[in-house]
Each structure stands twice: as C-alpha cells, then as structure tokens.
Amino acid sequence: MISFPNIKINIGLDILAKRLDGYHNIESVFYPVNYTDILEIIPFGKFELINKGLTIDCPIEQNLCYKAWKLIDDNHKIGTVKIILYKNVPFGTGLGSGSADAAFTLKMLNDMFNIGIINDILIKYASQIGADCAFFIKNKPAFASGIGTELTEIKLDLSNYYLLICFSDISVNTTNAYKNCKPHLPEKKLADLIKLPIETWKSNIKNDFESSIFPDYPILSTIKEELYAKGAIYAQMSGSGSALFGIFKDNPNEIKIESCKKTIGIKL
Predict the structure, then answer these.
(1) Catalytic-labelled residue, pool 132, 206, 208, 224
(2) Which of the following is catalytic: 8, 67, 107, 224?
(3) How far apart are the C-alpha atoms of 147 and 22, rounded to whole Å?
(4) Taking CA 181 as the corner, what is the angle to CA 9 and CA 91, rounded to the nearest 5 degrees?
(5) Sign of the Cα pseudo-torsion (264, 200, 204, 146, in order)
(6) What are 81-102's pLDDT values in tens digits?
(7) Which domain holds residue 179?
(8) Among this protein's residues, is 8 annotated catalytic?
(9) Same domain, yes or no, for 139 and 30?
(10) Domain end among 94, 118, 153
(11) Averaged in consecutive runs of 10 residues, what is the pLDDT profile of the chain (268 residues)?
C-alpha cells in the first residue's frame, strides 16, 4: 500500500501559557496542503524501515513511523512490516511532515490489516506520538488548542488561492523555539480573526514564534518581507519554522524570492 502524507501550514500561532507538564498551550489554525512525502508499507517477515530521499538521522526507535507501527502492533498484534519512506519535505520547517508520516502510517496499517479502528481512537493514538499528528487523521482545516491536539474543524476554504513555500538552509529546533518564546494572552482571539477577509490577516494574525526566532535568523524576516514585496496577500512563518509561506491570488511559480534556497508553488 502506498500513500502520500501531506504537510500543513499554521495560519496564526498564539502561545498562551506554559503548562505544569512543560508543554505550552497554543491556539493556531492548521490547514492541509498538497505537498507530500511518499510512504509504502508491506507485510514483511521482520520489521524494516527504509529511508529514501532526505536522510532521517535518528535511531529507528525515535522514528515516528516506527512509533506508529509499534503502537498499532502493541495494541492489535499485526506483526512486522517493511516501511519505505521517501522523505521529500525538509526537516525543522514547521510543516508537520514527520507528524503526517506517522499519522498516515496509523491509517494505512488500520486499512491494510482491517483492524477497524475508528477515527476517535486513531486520533488518541496519534496524540501519543506527537502534538501535530492528530490533525492528519482527519486532515481537514481545524482550529487547534491545548498543545495542538484539541482540534475543532472549521469552514475555511482557500481553494481560490495559491501558496508559495520558501525553504532556507535553516532548521529550527522546536524545543529550543519554545524555550525562547514569551507566552501571553492576545487581545483578539484567533478563532475570531480567522473569519475576517484574508486581506485583513496581515494586520491581525501573527505567529508568536517570529518575535523570538527572527532575531536569531534575520534571513527569515527578510524572506517574509520579500514575499510581501512580491505581492503576497498574507505571509507568515509556519509553526516554529523555518519555512515561510505567502498566499497569492495568482500563480506565483514565476516569482523568485532571492533570499531563500528553494520555493514550491502550490494551488491551495
């Protein structure tokens, strides 16, 4: 079985408070985007994980696809499989690709072995693997709260727009990003601001990580400024970075962002 785990972008990200368990309560809007890794799973006599494309440099026990298989096998005794992951989306970009790989592994194993796990249980499983994983079970626009695992589906349709994602050589460590942030309660709620016309988002919807990450990586601020200079309606760093995106009315594929290493244009 083959699937194509897609990314998400964060539209707005408010860091509200640090919790007693060390995590942070946030509010953000997660929006799915069709830029993908490639994931293949087949039954196999022993567990094997083959990494193609971008290298995943961690012990196998820390790999999120392995964790997803282990969780399903521990609870449903499916046996060993071979997982072949072609990693296309760069790491440390705030686009949730590792979380998507794990969530899609859960869904694929559920289908392959006819386990019959309902979505609510898959979401609970996904939340045990990582904060963003739960979103990719339903994979629909959602308002995220708590540590990012409390999801409420919202009506947000950006299908008339285009996205330009900008990649640099920078990889931002999420743990360090949270250490340097300053939690606060915003004056206006993101749940209300997201309902405003997209032309007003620039003045109203912020990503709190930008204030702590941009001073350390000024090139990211430059990329954001360049996106607006090239006509983006709205531009922001996704999650804890380092990818930035701009939303455009027209196809941005001919636009060149001088400050970044690579750009990907996508119809939303």
Answers:
(1) 132
(2) 8
(3) 10
(4) 40
(5) negative
(6) 999 999 999 988 999 999 999 9
(7) 162-267
(8) yes
(9) yes
(10) 153
(11) 97 94 92 98 97 93 97 97 97 93 98 97 95 95 94 96 94 81 91 97 96 92 96 95 95 91 94
